[in-house]
Amino acid sequence: MLDINFIRENQDKVKEAIKHKQLEGTVDVDEVLALDKDYITLLQEVEELRASRNKLTDAIAHAATTQRLALIEEASVIKKELTELEPKLTALKEELDAKLLWIPNIPAEDVPVGEGEDQNVVLRQEGELPSFEFTPKDHMELGEALAMIDTQRGAKIGGFRGYFLANTGTQLHRAILQYALDFLRQKDFTIMEVPWLVKPEHFIGTGYFPWGEEDHYSVQDGLALIGTAEVSLTSYYADEVLAENDLPVCLAGISPCYRREVGSYGKDTKGVFRVHQFTKVEQVVLLPEGEELSRQWHEKLLSNAEEFLKSLDLPYQIKLMCTGDMGASQRKKYDIETWFPAQRTYRETHSDSYFLDFQARRLNMKYKTKKGEVKYINTLNNTLAASPRLLAAVMENYQEEDGSIRVPNVLQSYMNGLEIIR
RNA sequence: GGAGGGUUGGCAGAGUGGCCUAAUGCAGCGGUUUGCUAAACCGCGCCCGCUUUUGUGGGCUCACAGGUUCGAAUCCUGUACCCUCCGCCA
Q1: What ipTM did this prediction achieve?
Q2: A117-421 in CATH: which number?
Q3: Nucleotides of strand B under 7 angstroms from a protein beta carbon
């Protein structure tokens, strides 16, 4: 959520952001500002009435009995007016707040303007692509041959995009995730198991709702299944006021992630690349305000993920996302794409964003500065490891001609010392 | 699923219709005073307007939402959450 004062004073910037983020038609800034104006006008009217009522009730309390009746009579008139105006005020405020939820964050200055993924910018590529003296197989072919992945029965039991992992498949998947958790533990992140079912207000708070409601599964008790641990982790201190000394807060969460993937029916139907349920280790950082600081940490979270991928010897590229391909609440976003040899291309495995106070305003999450001022926290997050997508990347990059798969050095201790899967 | 108890500022804790504009204590931060430190004293949330450094007037705030009343922390109804017990359960 943007500060209403900011919207009043920077209408053009807000309109431009809506246009550049391809959100035209979802919200009308002029309409919001008109509502805001009506609200303030009515608010002032109501507050004046309340002021006179307060004066009268005070007078009644101190008046002689003989004068009381007349004063009460007078107060009743004001009461009647307030009874009429107050519900209007509430309704106006609700309408305004609901519309404000649709106003996106403003992209940072260095985010390229673009309509979609074609305008994203590759910043650099890291790691040496593996060279195979044979045609590399995709993870599905490898996984079936080694009995690591079973999507046939996955679909039979879990429907479209369902999957089972088995034996070394289960082990390697869990090794990646446990290694990721240990990796962040060493970097002084607090590693957390988080609620997977979360109240809608925290999806709104983190900026997934209202925009992405149809991408989520909701359950009959009014909760929804998280698509990322970010939702639970970023909301952890919602409605609280932290001390400045508590910051930065570095949280790492592991959780299943549920995604309906409604817009992608025909895409990536083979294997376990795009599934409705996967597991992810996520980094979330809470900071004091300041764009420079957020930008430093944005790079730091990126380098955490890079260090992780390098330790696994996986080649990747960094993409700077253009305005049209970033989330409504994000200020700037990098994707890391990891090399998938069978597809001969880099595919998204990580997403690194910062938000300034956009999420914290929605979550009512503040901190008190050393001087005693209360300010909104700034938030960021990045993936560290999402699997089975990363499992697929490891399998494809580490395959041998005979269809076996080497276990990356850093994962061997998580696999009882196993060096090769055959 | 059932029964009972509870929720007051950062924390503790008083307050059962009108000097509650929420006592008191503790902590933190800022300020005043001051050789230094300490002590003492003053202040501390949110919203709106006017001034826009300061300031100033008003409104709101006792879990949340309604209701009763001229007036609600206080009375009534509903909801959420916490605690205890019964039932069920990995």
Answers
A1: 0.82
A2: 3.30.930.10
A3: 10, 18-19, 28-30, 43-49, 58-60, 66, 70-71
Name the nt closest to A43 by C-alpha to C1': B48
Threshold 0.90, pTM exceeds: yes
**Catalytic positions of A, please?**
259, 274, 348, 351, 389
> pLDDT tens-digit profile of A235-272?
888 877 787 878 899 999 999 999 998 877 778 988 99
CA of A13 to C1' of B80 (A): 39
Coil, strand or helix at A110:
coil
- CATH code of A4-100, in short, is 1.10.287.40
Nearest residue, CA→C1' of B66: A87
Instruction: Evaluate the CA torsion angle A294, A325, A162, A341 in order and state its sign.
Output: negative
Contact criterion met (CB below 8 Å) for A284 and A379:
yes
CA A14 – CA A9 distance, rounded (Å): 10
Pairwise pLDDT comparison (A195 vs A295), residue with the higher score: A295
pLDDT value, residue A372: 67
Provide the residue ranges of all domains of chain A, joining segments of one domain with +.
4-100, 117-421
Q: Return the pLDDT at A318.
A: 98
